[in-house]
Specification:
With 41 residues, this protein is an all-beta fold. It has one domain (1-36). It has no helices and two strands. The chain has strands at 7-9, 28-30. The chain has a two-stranded parallel ribbon with strand order 1-2.
C-alpha cells in the first residue's frame, strides 16, 4: 500500500493550497478528469 502525507481530493482551484511549504511531503492529488478550474466551492 502506498503512503502519502496529505491527499488532496479534486484538482480544481482547491489544489492551489499545495504550495512550496509542502515540498518536504509526499503529496497525492486525486482527480478523475482535468486539473484546473474556477469553482471555489
Amino acid at each position: 500500500m502506498r503512503h502519502h502525507d496529505p491527499v488532496v481530493i479534486g484538482a480544481g482551484s482547491g489544489n492551489a493550497v499545495v504550495d512550496d511549504s509542502f515540498a518536504n511531503l509526499d503529496v497525492a492529488i486525486v482527480e478523475e478528469r482535468w486539473f484546473g478550474g474556477t469553482c471555489l466551492n
